[in-house]
Amino acid sequence: MSELKTCFKRVDYDLGGLLHYIDVGDIGLPDIQRPFVWSNAKVRDLFDSMYRGFPVGYLLFWENGSATGSRQIGTDAKARAVANRLIVDGQQRLTSLYAVFRGRSVIDEDYKARGIEIAFRPRDGKFEVADAAIRRDPEWIADISTMWASGKSSRKLVNDFIEQASAKQALTEEEEELISHNLDRLFDLQKYPFTALEIASDVDEEQVADIFVRINSEGVKLNQADFILTLLSVFWEEGRADLEAFCRASRIAPVQGSAASPFNHFIQPDPDQLLRVAVAIAFGRGRLKSVYQVLRGKDPETGAFLAERREEQFARLKEAQAHVLHLTNWHQFLSALIGAGFRSAEMISSQNALLFSYAFYLLGRVRYRVPEHLLQKAIGRWFFAVSLTGRYTSSPETVMDSDLARFRTVESGEEFLQILDDIIAGQLTSDFWSISLPMNLDSSSARNPELFAYVAAQNKLGAPVLFSHKTVADLIDPAIQTRRKALERHHLFPRAWLERQGLTDLRQINQMANFALLEWPDNLEISDNPPAAYVPEVRARFNEGDWRRMCELHALPPDWEQMSYDAFLGERRRLMADIIRRGFEKLI
């Protein structure tokens, strides 16, 4: 006989009831101070659909089987100590409705506070996002939040608005009746019916994710990090708040003389990204799939969820997260990237590579006590290698899980460093340098990891900017703010000239090997002249030694300006691969 059974129940609510349950803490809607990604226009459309009586979708709740005494989602004091239901699908809708009906601001994805001001014109029942013109027009209610937040009765609201509208233009009895009807309909949106599917508490997160995908028309998969962040909201609200505060501060450049902050020129992390780093440190795992059950306190033998076990696992996560968010650790790690020749986000092709490299930096610093001068170079080598090879591009969690597994029995800093170097050596073989890398450089992508490694290598080798005495490192410093970028990507064989020769394939014209970084005045001066025409003029500005060194560090073969385009590309790819190899060897 089949053991399959229905794992959910259907429950009907009206909107006022849902808002009340959120107010008292019975439904766990994540704190309104967390990032909200809907635009005001999308909220406007939600209200318009509800006003017209259209359905706006199911809500998906998950019954909370947590033990008594766990912390409530959100920072407000709640009547309920524990949320009975956690919102899985419909969070943005409920946040929108809660913010508008309660007159609350939200924090957007850039961690900036903004109000959701939805305007309503009672004459024709039209919704719009409030703007300056609407706010001045007495025909509009500029912010419908006042309808419910004012505490006035619907009759009082209707009378007040009719009085306001009549001051501009006299209203007929029919117009007053229509306005009254439309305002009553708006006011009564708090009675709008919602249907929720409530999943039983004994259903695990994988099944919940599967349910979500099957009923969601967009087929959006739930991120495993979302489940863990929800757990943090319930059992360790302070930890989630710390993650979000760190991420918020990383987006704001500090004023001169202010305290240290997470701000940097490489990454503006999201909470789930830093959570992955903390999980790697705490549990030695790259995959979040099983960590959720670990944090819930699941006993692997009995399957029971034990409060004391949960507390033990959260203690490990708290310790790890403290290291992740420690500003000294954060900035020392980023300095390792600078030491490897990388200077800004424009040179980062994979945020996974950066974040997982941070996890290894913390392992080396905290667990294995590797001296900082050795750790800096080791992590620089590691980031250079994993970025160049795209190690965490495909199935990143699986690859990271496998990498972390190699350190489970490691006890010393020497072993830690040796394993990192062994993994690198397995990737950067002689065949990689001589065969794979030149082939990978046959690309027209502007965000190619090989291109970023090439520029990083030029930084390490102290390369001057082509046709300049300034260095590449100096002019790509992200701290330099100019109206026009100091360096521009220049076609060594100009596009217009190649097209005049009959070459129209943009992939061939925009080959990575046909580009070099030039100061913008030189780029303008060269225009669409062929190398045979412009190189002799530029060469006259340099002595023979400087010219030879400049060409060498820009992977330009001797007399390249006289070569055919195809021959030039092939030879330059080989030389670019050699520059990348030499730059990497400077980190050993």
Question: How does this structure look, described?
Answer:
The chain has 588 residues and is α/β, with parallel strands linked by helices. The chain has helices at residues 15-24, 40-51, 91-102, 132-136, 145-149, 154-168, 173-187, 205-215, 224-235, 237-249, 271-283, 291-295, 307-324, 327-339, 351-367, 372-389, 396-405, 413-427, 430-440, 449-461, 472-475, 495-500, 506-509, 520-526, 531-539, 544-553, 565-585; strands at residues 8-14, 27-28, 35-36, 59-63, 85-89, 106-108, 113-114, 118-121, 126-129, 193-199, 487-491, 515-519. The strands form four sheets. A five-stranded mixed sheet has the order 1-10-4-5-2, with helices on one face. The N and C termini lie far apart (64 Å). Helix 6 crosses helix 7 (173-187), helix 11 packs parallel to helix 15 (351-367) and helix 20 packs across helix 27. It folds into four domains: 8-105 and 190-205 and 211-215, Conserved hypothetical protein from pyrococcus furiosus pfu- 392566-001, ParB domain (Alpha-Beta Complex), CATH 3.90.1530; 118-181, no CATH class; 230-417, no CATH class; 435-585, no CATH class.
